[in-house]
Amino acid sequence: MNKRRDMIGSFLCRRGLGLSKSTYAAAFRQTVQTESHIYNKRRRTICSSYQCKKMNKDTEIDMEEVKLNEVDPEKQPMTGDGQAAGNEKNGSVKLKVPEDEVTFTGLSKEELLRVAGTPGWVRTRWVLLVLFWLGWVGMLAGAIVIIVQAPRCKPIPEMNWWNEGPLYQIDDLDAFCGGMEGLKEKLDDMTQLKVKGLVLGPFHRVQKDKPATLNLELIDPSFGSLDKLKEVLERAHKKGISVVLDLTPNYMGSAPWFENDDEIMEKVKSAAEYWLKRGVDGIKLPDLSRVSNSTEWPKLRAAVQGNRTEDAKIRGLMGVVQGASASEVSQLINASGVDLVLSDLLSSNNGGAERIRAMDVLHSQQRSLGWGLGASSGVRLSSQAKAAGLIRLYQLLLFTMPGTPVFTYGDEIGLQAGNGTKMVWNLESESEANGTEYAEVRKWFKSLSDLRGKERSLLHGDYYSLYSSPSSLAFLRVWDQSERYITAVNWGDKAETLKLSLTPTEGVELPETAKVKITTDENQEIDSSISLDKITLGPRQALLLQFPYTA
């Protein structure tokens, strides 16, 4: 491009010297051709491959521009003697001046004010304002109608920590984990199982059937020390686990309260106050039907349940009842004022009809009711569920019944019954058959505990019986607009067909089908649909069905 400018400058100079037009035009064309020839020769010498091709294209464009500029040399400005064509003066340059572009700059303030005051715009503004307020009022009215017509949410009942998850009893710390030091390390396992409360002991000092040796405020050194217990309490509370102490006075003898109830009750009351001040969250007592009739019972209740405020954590009073009917348990809950009653109704009643009747009587008191199978006497679930498959069945039953499920250590893996049985922690070290079964049962237990903690229908929902027979039962759990659940179990040795029947209840209906949520039957697919007209369960099989709320 520089050479081209030099060439044009030389052209202009020559015109300025007065050369004729024809002579100058010929000289200019010759100059252009000569320069182009020299440039092309140099380019062919230097360029190669793709860059050369690209340069060719650029050069050709440049030279075309030069040729276009010299098409009519007579139109070039001149300073010589010759006269330019078209009456153009020598040395003048013609420029094309673009016409002024018209741009809209808007109205001025005065113009806007004049326009805004016209009748047409005034009417338009009023119409828009009225439409805006009509739309706003219409949306407000629609929202109010939706709120009024929407089904009202049922108020959540008052729940305490012993209602929120399973309770886990450890009566033998040595067999469970080697003492209190080991218990602190096993709290993570309890958290995984969604355990909300540990029931420890008894481990106080006493000699069998000797009330004079009773000291409920001292820990037997064979179980641990007060400092170790404080560490357990601190760590458990950080993980959201409450701790209950079993203060059964004569736990080594045959009569748990010895003979003199009032004298022992005074010691129990003092011990309860002592342990509660040190961070314990509750007290468990045996033979509630007997001890609640003591003259010292109101004082003990006051020691445990007194000074309850909204900010303070509630301390629980837990009592065990054995050999009582469902009606007697219900009366005891009302009369004693205890926070949680653990009965042996499931253990003492083996028939489905009796178990259903017990739930029919007690379901309205579910927040004060604990269910266990062997837990009331400190034995494991396997003592009642001896046949293969029954461990899972009874775990499902306990987690879905109206009340708090209570287990003894080892129940989560189906540990076999027996006093002093060591807890199995390293499942891989067991024989292949036992280790696999323990692991599968623990996984099943955890899934049920997780589900109960998330579903309001199972956590505190209403209960309706659907079916019962000597070896099977079925019931429904519902809560407001939450998912509904049907539990159906058959602990018999033969298959059975369950014909579900719901007493007419406002707002509660059974659909034609429900979805399989959990099942012990390997042939039944999870999330498959099943007809509720007739449910056939194989021997020792359990089924948890789910269906949604419909308005």
UniProtKB/TrEMBL annotation:
<keyword id="KW-0812">Transmembrane</keyword>
<dbReference type="GO" id="GO:0015190">
    <property type="term" value="F:L-leucine transmembrane transporter activity"/>
</dbReference>
<feature type="domain" description="Glycosyl hydrolase family 13 catalytic">
    <location>
        <begin position="169"/>
        <end position="452"/>
    </location>
</feature>
<dbReference type="GO" id="GO:0005975">
    <property type="term" value="P:carbohydrate metabolic process"/>
</dbReference>
<dbReference type="Pfam" id="PF00128">
    <property type="entry name" value="Alpha-amylase"/>
</dbReference>
<dbReference type="GO" id="GO:0015173">
    <property type="term" value="F:aromatic amino acid transmembrane transporter activity"/>
</dbReference>
<dbReference type="InterPro" id="IPR031984">
    <property type="entry name" value="SLC3A2_N"/>
</dbReference>
<feature type="transmembrane region" description="Helical">
    <location>
        <begin position="126"/>
        <end position="148"/>
    </location>
</feature>
<dbReference type="Pfam" id="PF16028">
    <property type="entry name" value="SLC3A2_N"/>
</dbReference>
<dbReference type="GO" id="GO:1904273">
    <property type="term" value="P:L-alanine import across plasma membrane"/>
</dbReference>
<feature type="region of interest" description="Disordered">
    <location>
        <begin position="72"/>
        <end position="92"/>
    </location>
</feature>
<dbReference type="GO" id="GO:1903801">
    <property type="term" value="P:L-leucine import across plasma membrane"/>
</dbReference>
<keyword id="KW-1133">Transmembrane helix</keyword>
<dbReference type="InterPro" id="IPR006047">
    <property type="entry name" value="GH13_cat_dom"/>
</dbReference>
<dbReference type="GO" id="GO:0016324">
    <property type="term" value="C:apical plasma membrane"/>
</dbReference>
<dbReference type="InterPro" id="IPR042280">
    <property type="entry name" value="SLC3A2"/>
</dbReference>
<dbReference type="GO" id="GO:0016323">
    <property type="term" value="C:basolateral plasma membrane"/>
</dbReference>
<dbReference type="InterPro" id="IPR017853">
    <property type="entry name" value="GH"/>
</dbReference>
<dbReference type="InterPro" id="IPR013780">
    <property type="entry name" value="Glyco_hydro_b"/>
</dbReference>
<protein>
    <submittedName>
        <fullName>Solute carrier family 3 member 2</fullName>
    </submittedName>
</protein>
<dbReference type="GO" id="GO:0015180">
    <property type="term" value="F:L-alanine transmembrane transporter activity"/>
</dbReference>
<dbReference type="GO" id="GO:0015823">
    <property type="term" value="P:phenylalanine transport"/>
</dbReference>
<keyword id="KW-0472">Membrane</keyword>
